[in-house]
Amino acid sequence: MDENIEDFNKILIERVSSNWKRFAFNACETDIHSIIEHIDQRNESDKLKMAAFLQKLYEINPACYKEVIVDSLYALKRFDVVLGVAIDSKLLPFVLTKFKKMSE
Q1: What is the 3-state secondary structure (H, E, C) of 59-104?
Q2: Average pLDDT of 34-41?
C-alpha cells in the first residue's frame, strides 16, 4: 500500500470506524459476510477492525479501491467523509461526478 492510500485510510479509520460493519457491507461484493465475521471475531477496537477491513478490501481490488470506498460512503450518507477524502486530486473528478448525479 502506498503512502497516499495510507493517508486515505487514516481519514476513514478516524471518521468511519464506529460503523465499520455497515461500511463493509456497502464496500464489497465478494463473500463479505465471511470477511466481516473473520475480522469481527478479533478482540480489537473498531479502529483496528476497520484497518483490517481496509487492508482486505485493498487486496481484493486495488485498482478500484478508492472508488469502492466513495460508493460505500455515499450509501452511508457520509458526505462529510467523502469531502474529506476528495482532497486527493485523483479522486476529485469521481466525487464531483457522483455529486452531479445525486443532484439530478
Answers
A1: HHCHHHHHHHHHHHHHHCCCHHHHHHHCCCCCCHHHHHHHHHHHHC
A2: 92
